[in-house]
Amino acid sequence: MAEADLMRRLQKLASSLGARLFRQQVGMAWVGNKVLSGPGVFHLARGDIVIRNARPFHAGVPGMSDLGGWVRVEITPDMIGSTVAVYAQVEVKEGGRPTSEQLAWINAVNGAGGKAGVARDEADLRRILGL
After folding, report:
1. In the chain, at which end, N or C, are there fewer CB atoms within 10 A of the end residue's CB?
2. What is the pLDDT along the chain (131 residues), one digit of tens a residue?
3. How many other β-carbons are positioned within 10 Å of the β-carbon of residue 99?
4. Which superkingdom (predicted)?
5. 3-16 and 122-129 helices, crossing angle to 10°
6. What pTM value is reported for the model?
7. What is the CATH number of the domain that holds 22?
8. What is the 3-state composition of the chain as percent helix, strand, coil, each rounded to the nearest 5?
């Protein structure tokens, strides 16, 4: 099974448990002004694109988990019985290990009162979210 399939299964399970988890992309791409033709000689293959004034675009934060969102938590009666959303981060790993940046992100979220961890299956997700 591909990690993407596991990720979708975990998202569906989270939703059925009352939580919401969204895919979070981390990476870098190039942005600028797309040109189809211009001065000079270009040797392009079909589907190639030339970007003028190219600059890097960074998405996400290094170490950010694959899935992020919230889990509903009911506040105790002494706090008027309201429900709040608690920040949640889930690093999905079908195989392999989380990087030191990913572990630092998970520790930071947990240290701030959120819910974060590494999920290799549905049981891990339930444990992380406390559901």
Report:
1. N
2. 688 999 999 999 999 999 999 999 999 998 998 776 666 677 778 888 778 889 999 999 899 999 999 998 878 888 787 878 899 999 999 989 999 999 999 999 999 999 999 999 999 999 999 99
3. 12
4. Bacteria
5. 50
6. 0.74
7. 3.40.1350.10
8. 30, 35, 35
